[in-house]
Design a protein that fits this description.
10 helices, 71% helix
């Protein structure tokens, strides 16, 4: 997140202010007198700590500004344009924060959610319309990095099949129709192979059940 100079410079300013409140008893006491919320310092090993830092900073920016004005040794407060940029950074990063919570908060396999989450994140990013040059630059940077990492995600067979077989998603979230068709065909082949293998050693009643299961799958994508 902080590789870009614009983002890095802004985050450094916010970090220095947060650090000041962490080390200044007087400033911390004044902030505590106005709110129970605490400023959050970012940690290099956790990307979302930068988001949390900026979010909390903007949330308390009015109170922080008043306190810094009373402290001669305090770092300079962000100016209006920088605050607007920080707000746009938060808007751009919020979908990633929500996706992180969604994946990390589950105790079961989430492979079927990868493609829907990735494509939803991309749509959310594209929908964001920053008004500042810095916000626009960050949006461009995020989309470029996103493309590098996830442009071929739908071609990962395991993830595509998991998504298709999840009744919540099926083929709805696919952008690449060819990749979707390949995954569907692969599932069909696997089911046919299993069905044919079982039919060889089955009685009449079992045969009917297997044929019914195969028919249900063939109608799987028709039923909404």
């Amino acid at each position: 997140i902080e590789k870009g100079k614009i983002v890095n410079d802004l985050c450094k300013k916010v970090k220095s202010i947060v650090a000041y409140f962490k080390h200044s008893v007087s400033a911390a006491d004044q902030l505590r007198a106005h709110t129970d919320l605490k400023l959050i310092q970012s940690v290099e090993t956790r990307w979302n700590s930068t988001y949390n830092m900026l979010y909390r900073f903007i949330e308390l920016s009015d109170k922080i500004s008043l306190i810094l004005l009373k402290c001669p040794t305090a770092p300079a407060m962000l100016i209006a344009s920088e605050l607007q940029t920080a707000k746009e950074f938060i808007s751009l990063l919020q979908p990633f924060e929500e996706a992180t919570k969604l994946v990390c908060g589950e105790s079961y396999v989430t492979a079927s959610k990868v493609i829907p989450i990735v494509n939803t994140l991309k749509c959310k990013l594209e929908e964001c319309e920053p008004t500042t040059d810095s916000g626009g630059h960050m949006k461009k940077m995020l989309l470029e990095e996103f493309s590098k990492r996830f442009s071929n995600i739908e071609q990962v067979s395991l993830l595509a099949i998991a998504t298709i077989l999840d009744p919540r998603f099926k083929n709805i979230n696919f952008v690449d129709k060819i990749a979707c068709a390949h995954a569907q065909n692969k599932v069909t082949r696997i089911i046919n192979e299993i069905t044919m293998s079982n039919l060889k050693n089955s009685d009449a009643s079992t045969t009917i059940v297997l044929e019914t299961c195969l028919e249900l799958y063939e109608n799987y994508f028709i039923i909404s």
